[in-house]
Amino acid sequence: MSEIPVSEILDRYPTERASSLAVLEDVQREYKYLPREALETTAERLKMPLSEVYQIATFFKAFSLTPKGENVIKVCLGTACHVGGGPRIMAAVEKSLGIKAGSTTPDYKFSLEAIRCVGACASGPMMLINEQPYSKMTPAKADELVERLRSGELAPEPTEAVTVETAGPPAPVDLSAVPPAG
Ligand code: FES
Hints:
The chain folds into two domains: 6-59; 71-150, 3-Layer(aba) Sandwich (Glutaredoxin). Strand 4 and strand 5 form a beta hairpin. It contains seven helices and five strands; from the N terminus they run H-H-H-H-E-H-H-E-E-E-E-H. Helix content is 38%, strand content 11%. It is elongated. FE2/S2 (inorganic) cluster binds at residues 76, 78-81, 117-121, 124, 126.
């Protein structure tokens, strides 16, 4: 699948600063992360300082500056899910994928993330695969889901919804800490 060029995404919006968040959301949805070049193109087209675009990109948790896997698995470790066995689910998925939470497999097939409450505490422990929720998880169920995903039985459809909360000002950003996208 070839990605839509960033210039085409920019064409969808007015050429003004106020479009930056929507543009970045679309880029994140398309590429599953924000490539450095995309930030540069966005800054140039919207006539914004690059540092300002980086501020937005690093402030909102929905954005990632590093590439993610084809499938993103999230295990809830919020209080209720933690008490219900979330850490055991995470351990099972880490073992199955051979990576730790917060990382991506070398072949970019899977990314694994720990998340906080997704608002379904009564159905926990919760796990999300490409934003599709799975409830009442057990380590065995997690193993089975990862296997189904690996075998293609579970569609790896990139359905990641980018939800950006806009409350609060962007925090200052240290640009020297931002790695170039590879
Ligand atoms: S703590 Fe996991 S859904 Fe609430």
